[in-house]
Design brief:
The complex is a heterodimer. By secondary structure, chain A is α/β, with parallel strands linked by helices. In chain B, helix 5 packs across helix 6. Chain B starts with a helix and ends in an 8-residue tail after the last strand. Classes of the chains: A alpha/beta, B mainly alpha.
Amino acid sequence: MGKIIAVHSYKGGTGKTLLSVNLAATFAQHGKKVCLMDIDFRAPSLYTILKMGKVEYWLNDYLNGTCEIDKVLIDISDKIHSNGKLYVGLANPATEAIREMSAKDRKWEMRALGRLLALRNSLLDGKGFDYLIFDTSPGLQYSSINSIVVADLVIVATTLDRSDVDGTKRMLHELYELFEKKSEIVLNKVLNDFSSKAFKEEMQTKMKDIYMVPVLGIVPCFCDILKAEGGIIFANERQSHPFARILDEIATKIENNVK
Amino acid sequence: MSKQEVLGKKPLQILEKIRENLERLNEKIEVMIELQKHGRKDIQTIPEAPLDVMTLLSMPDHLRKTAMTVCKLGRATAEEIAQQTHRARAVESAYLNQLVIMGYLKKERKGRKAYFYVDRENQEG
């Protein structure tokens, strides 16, 4: 049976989208059937990152109840050379759509939660997807908390920035814990020298002490990623790059743990 | 037809009816006990209150667990909820009925079984 993964963070710019896209591509390379969904309705990015053309139906429409999920999903398997399948559900990046999504009331959000919950039936059971990956908005947004409630695993992207560490700690105990969610940390943008195994191990222990949850991965700050300006899916186009290799380790860990 | 004849003809149905009424009574007592336990005699009743994630977050832990399970299962009996939460059926029944009183869940009877669910579609936003 497939699993739903929500990629979340306390602050913006911690690398949620980068992780989500590359994790999805890595799973597909492992032969899995994956669906990547842009749940960041306030600042959609997958439409641009994945260089999509004309889109007829958005996730916005599905959550509004105006279309079924089949209409939203776009097969982008041919964009990544893999044995698996990769589909994507996009958030509408038009300013008007963002404005509309930001003004939804509690009843709408409750129904949206119901529609997200229904994906377990329609996509995991019905269409045999192995993984649904939700790329969410940072912080305590309705759409993000809805995604967390639905998810089997929450991947928390965090950095060593003090305000991020503090906020992430609070979120772990005052949000994920309350929903009894399995959550794991990915520490991103680490500056120190990464070649030493001792440093990596020291970092792992430090993270575990701070957050009291398992560390799924530690990702150094790569200039190559910044240089790529969001235009390259490393897990697909640069498979020998250290970043792609770290993603491969993370994906394998998830495959082995989340059963 | 005398009372005796009725009893003679349908003893089973009458006993079933009595059991059903006792169960309903039992549920009400369970709710009262739970309300006393948590010292919330003044629980607010909001007709058709939306059970959104922010509401879930602000609930006391014991109720959140039950409400989350109903959300996941969609529609369930106290027995089914108890299987998921590993708490006693009577306890879940009390929490479920409490959530109904609070307006977050709907309850529907089918024969002797009571189903609890979140009424998402009938709420006009």
